[in-house]
Amino acid sequence: MTNNTRVELLKYMIMAREFDASMLRLYRQGKAFGGVYSQLGNEAVSVGSAMALDPTQDVLFPMHRNVGAHFVFGATIDQMMQNQLAREGSQMRGTDGTGHYADPRLRIYGNVSHLGAMIPVANGFVLAGKLRGENTVALTYIGDGGAQVGEVHEALNFAAVHKLPLVLIIENNQYAYSTPNSQEFAVDQLSKRAIGYGIHGETIDGTDVELVLKTCQAAVARARRGEGPSIIETQTMRMRGHAEHDDFSYVPKELLDEWALRDPVNTYSAKLIADGVISSEEVKQLRDTTLDQMIASIDRTLELPWPDASEGFKQVFL
Q1: Is the dihedral of CA 180, 116, 80, 44 positive or negative?
Q2: Which fold does the domain 3-313 belong to in CATH?
């Protein structure tokens, strides 16, 4: 891994972090619409996994906590702001601001609210590609709670039988809304379920962006060789509520304090500084520049008009 790649990983994680912080402020000001689903603590998963793909060949099926993956695949800050603030020009035409936007031009197909439903869709995409003789890999995500629904199991079994080039990231955030892991499943690692499907599975530290990248690169390579899908369980912590309406008082403070010490952005910044890849001043400058970009994008977006009301009736089937 080159130093340029390592700096790029940090850059995208900082972008994701600052975008997240901006949305939290805008939500409190009543300027963000719908739910705001923070990815605080998940930046390494989103960025590291998306960096393992070839954006010209592969496809990304992000969930609502994968803003960093959008940035890696080429989404601009302005476009993401327009989506979240439901302004004219947004990819959902202002009808949604909670993460359901997609950009086929960038090979991003974003998310279905019904948890687990993206995995069958990703299956269909790569199955079609396989029938056309293409070698496209799809990467998608599910949380620890969403991993318990039937569609996930059905889709994984189908992908395993047909050796589809699929990589599934299970973001184990420790809580499915207010339900802790201990009340969600009995297995000690969700990746062990891969044995039942006859596919590869492993559990890794989801706060280590380089580990996430290397693990996903190996999974993508297996998929491209025709060896079928992989389950990668990333151990992380959702450091905010399910969405910003949720005060997440059900999470023990001691647990949040423990995971705060493993903050993926801060620990990776410190690692790169210690390794001499980047200076502390350069990290500060990168953060300041990114924040300035967010503020400028917010100002531009808030000046945009609202979409015409007629947009709400398009592509609606009665």
Answers
A1: positive
A2: Rossmann fold (3.40.50)
Distance CA 196, CA 101 (A): 34
- DSSP-assigned beta bridge partners for residue 169: 141, 232
pTM of the model: 0.95
pLDDT tens digits along 46-98: 999 999 999 999 999 999 889 999 999 999 999 999 999 989 888 888 887 77
Would you say how long the chain is, in residues? 318
CB 219 within 8 A of CB 159: no
Q: Identify whether the C-beta of residue 71 lies closer than 8 Å to the C-beta of residue 18.
A: no
